[in-house]
C-alpha cells in the first residue's frame, strides 16, 4: 500500500514539473490583434483621433488638391490624393460646378470610398478643397461618416505626426448611395426666395467683393444679391492659414451677430462656388439646414435681369 502511494506521488510530481525547452528554442511572437473598425460621429476629427485610428480597415483619409507634388512629399500615411479637377468642373475665374454624377462617383470610388467607408478629408487652400469634397459627398448621399481633419495637413505636419513619402494605391470602392439633389440650388431658386424669411442668403466672399468695391475675377456686375448677409468664410477659422475651426458655439455666435435667424435655412454662395462650399460646411457644423447656390455670383452677375446691390 505504501509503495503504491509513493508511486502515485512520484507520477504527480513528474506531471507538475515543466519539460525544459530544448536549447535554442524561441517563442513565436504573438500576432497583434486586428485593427477595429471606426465610426465617425461629427464633422470634425482631431489629429489625436486620426493618429489613433489610421489602421482602421474601414477608414479612408483623402486629400483634395491641385499640387500633387507638395502633397506627396509629406502626407498622412495611407492617405489618397484626389485632384480637384476630378470632383469640380471649371476654374477660379468662371466658377465651379459639380461634374456628371458618374464621374463624381468614379473619382471617390477610385480613392477607396464605398457606402459605409468612414472618411477624413484634408485639402489645399486652407481647407477649401476639403469642404468642396465634403459638399460633393453629401450630394452623392454620404450624409454621415464624413469629417474634416481639424487643422488640416499643415497642422498635422507641424505637430510632428507620422508622414509618408510614397503614396499607396487604394482598393476601388463602390458608392451607391442615392444622390441628394436638394442641396444644390439655382439662380431661379435664389431669386424666388430673396424676400422669403424662411431662407437666408449668406455671402462667403471677402468684404470688398461683397460691397462691390472689388468685383472679383469673372464678375460682370459688382455687388451682392439683395437680402444677403456677409460672413467671410475665414471667419470660422481660428488661424488664417489652416482649417483650424472655432468651437461650434463661437461659429453660431458669428452667424447670430451677422443677423442670421436660428430657424432659417441657409443658402451659401460666393464668387465661384468654392468658398460657398466652406459656408455650407459651417452651416452643417451647426446642424442647420444648408443649401449651396453653386453658380454663385459669377453666374448671378452675368444675367442683367438679376437684381444686385452694388456700389
Supply the CATH class of the largest domain. Alpha Beta
Shape, per Cα inertia axes: globular
CATH homologous superfamily placement of the largest domain? Rhodanese-like domain
**Secondary-structure element sequence?**
HEHEHEEEHEHEHEHEHEHEHEH
Q: Quickly give the CATH architecture of the largest domain.
A: 3-Layer(aba) Sandwich
Oligomer: single chain
Return the average pLDDT rounded to an integer. 91
Helicity, as a percent range: 25-40%
Strand order of the largest sheet: 1-7-6-2-3
- Count of helical segments? 11
How far is the first residue's CA from the last residue's CA? 117 Å
Give the uncertain stretches in residue-range form. Answer: 1-19
CATH topology of the largest domain: Oxidized Rhodanese, domain 1
Estimate the strand proportion. Answer: 15-25%
Count of domain modules = 2
Radius of gyration: 27 Å
